[in-house]
Amino acid sequence: MAAPVTLAGPRPRAGRLLLSVRPPGTLVAGAAILLLFLICAIFPGWVAPYDPLEFDYMAIMNPPTWAHPFGTDNFGRDMLSRTIWAAQVDLQIAIFSTLFPAIFGTLAGCLFGYFGGWPDAVFRRLVDIIVTIPFVVLVIAIVAVLGPGLLNMYIAISAVGWIIYARLMRAEIISQMRRDYAAAGLVMGYGRLRIIFRHLLPNAISPIVVYWMTDMSLAILLGSSLGYLGLGAQPPTAEWGVLIADGKNFMTTAWWMSIFPGFAIVLAGMGFSLLGDGMAALLRRRA
Amino acid sequence: MTAPLLSLQDVSVRIGAAAPVAGVSLDLAKGEVLGLVGESGSGKSLTMRAILRLLPPVARVGGRIVWDGKDLAGLSDADLRRVRGREIAMIFQEPMTALNPVLTVGRQIGESLAVHLGLRGTAARRRAIELLDQVGIPDAARRLGSYPHEFSGGMRQRAMIAIALAAGPRLLLADEPTTALDVTIQDQILKLLLRLKDELSMSVILVTHDLGVVAGTCDRVAVLYAGRLMEVGPTERIFARPSHGYTLGLLRSLPDATHARQRLSGIPGAPPDPGALPPGCRFEPRCAYAVAACRATEPPLARLGAELQTACLRAGDLLAAAAA
Q1: What are the pLDDT digits (tens) for A127-174?
Q2: Interface residues from chain B to A (CB-CB < 8 Å)
Q3: CA distance A248 to B268
Q4: Would residue A5 count as lying in a domain?
Q5: Same structural domain for residues B96 and B173?
Q6: What is the span of the domain harbouring residue B263?
Q7: Phi/psi class of residue A266: alpha, beta or left (left: φ > 0; alpha: ψ in -120 to 50)?
Q8: What is the total count of domains within chain A?
Q9: Fewer CB near the last or first residue (10 Å), C or N of chain A?
Q10: SS3 state at B275
């Protein structure tokens, strides 16, 4: 007779839920890219080889060399250093222009979804209206009213962006509240807010997290676009969109001035997208 | 007779023009296990949910539901929350979906202890371990940190019971608690429920469509058909000598151990649509004992002796035939 086989031994306790499975490659790649940008953003002075604002009239519009791998601009400023310093501004854009929409939208979506009624009906009409207008156009229109600058750009993006999170969360809460465990919470005599935020929200949050990651890459693109158009970050600030705009007049003679900040945008966007994809894959596997 | 713990008085549930639960009257005594049996769609679960006011607003509940002297329909939200979980608890058919997948079992027990009893920290932990022990989960201290998906089906139902009983309710509504489990586990869970009922001096309403489960566990049975009570009485009495054509039909459709090979009779036809009920007795079109009078009026649930209630015009004939 065969010896009894033990199927499961004791498992490690800490972090078991997230790390009991091997993280997907996309997650690792995305995290690595973002870590690189994060280091650039937190310690720009330490990573960047030159002062980003220092003029060097001996090296104006130099093509990429070992001394200046990304070349120099029309004032002789080192493009690599400027691109590195710009990471600070662009990551800030990614975070600040999505933080309020993600948090407020999630809370609003929870309440609209759970309680329904006329506030929910009003919200649905609002969604219908907002989605008919292209997001970028709407944001540009609001910035045009408020005036250019980073703060106004955050306000414009936040004013519109929360609706998408709220819509996502609302749908997710409605599907969760039909499950038995939501009824079980009522049966146990728990209050509605406790059921929404302690029971339903943790089960409904994963699409929000994934979308948030994607949204940060969209925010960088949007922030760069607005910077390029002169509506976002203003010129002395090194911001990737602003750098591209600076270089556009010299596109035929000094391509490096626009190309390298462009690469930085693409890479950062890719990093967030990979992170979002990886998280989605991880959460799917766990579910 | 002492006042019943829970009393349903002419309870109905209407959804639009249809009434999937129509005029259910039932009393439940302290410490009693009542089986509520019926086919799918007979209104068993609706009745249970109506007791705890869990139905959505489209379902309008009529009649009175009196719990321990209080009319549940008249309670404020705050008072209702105190009854839910603290005094009346409920367990569900699917332990998989009734447990919150992202919280550990320990957290879910602890939440009830904190909300209803104000227990926190080590006291709550100690009580949670006791509860898991009590429902027969081995190695309870370590299992507190487990998530529901790490439990087997039977273990999940045990955990569900532990959560439901955490606040020490006086009535447990068990909505088909064993239907999703395999037969050996069913038996363990039912035995567990009976043991806990005695230990905690609870009453239990056990909803099921399995007559075998009822025979083994319940003191009394209430038979529901198309939203109406057909027969209510002591389990042994009803199984030995049913007084209603429907109950008799149900029992005839069960295999029994005394005959080796036996043709099961079954009940022809299907239950009526609650929106289009037949005139007279709602079981009449399928009933083998129907007479012309059955089509005329719907027979009320009438007392027949001290402990039996039946809604069959031919109860006397059926009992006489069974006695013969």
Answers
A1: 999 889 888 888 999 998 998 888 999 999 999 999 999 999 999 999
A2: 52, 54, 80-86, 89-90, 92, 94, 97-103, 111-112, 115-116, 145, 147, 160, 163-164, 167
A3: 84
A4: no
A5: yes
A6: 242-324
A7: alpha
A8: 1
A9: N
A10: coil
